[in-house]
């Protein structure tokens, strides 16, 4: 197996390599609430309506940015400012000079390893389709 993430910087990765870093946890697809006074961002257990919770993948990845205004395309320019990304995020870890978690699919060869490790939203998320926006604060969870 080519462990490109150990020999290349994020800048050197091809688009395919960059995309393969996503572990499929779905944590970045949780709806966030920003405190207007402090600027603090809180995660909720509510997911974007495009997230297939069972598989933790976007149902319309190619068109997500036009369909979901709050969706952010992760890239090298905005990565440092995305403090709300989980500590387990491969992009965040590699940017900080850390290694991938042992359960990461690139290491295990199994896309289900993130779920088996209990790190994905598969076990607790609920779609925003079923939650009234005024109720979002009731679904705030501890940041990860």
Please give a quick description of this structure:
The chain is α+β, with helices and mostly antiparallel strands.
Give an overview in words.
The longest helix is centred in the first third of the chain and has 6 residues, at 15-20. The chain is α+β, with helices and mostly antiparallel strands. The chain has six helices and six strands; from the N terminus they run ααββββααααββ. Helix content is 19%, strand content 14%.
Order of helices and strands: HHEEEEHHHHEE
What is the SS-derived class? alpha+beta
Query: Which residues sit in consecutive blocks of at least 5 with pLDDT less than 50?
Result: none
Bin the strand percentage. 5-15%
Radius of gyration over all CA atoms, rounded: 15 Å
> Residue share in helices?
10-25%
DSSP strand count: 6
Number of domains: 1
Q: Profile the largest sheet.
A: 4 strands, mixed
Query: What is the end-to-end distance?
Result: 30 Å
Overall, the morphology is globular
The number of distinct helices, counting runs of at least 4 residues, comes to: 6
On the 0 to 100 scale, the average pLDDT is 94
Layout of helices and strands:
Blueprint: H1 4-7, H2 15-20, E1 30-34, E2 41-47, E3 51-52, E4 57-58, H3 64-67, H4 90-95, H5 105-108, H6 113-116, E5 126-127, E6 140-141
Parallel strand pairs: 2-5
Antiparallel strand pairs: 1-2, 2-6, 3-4
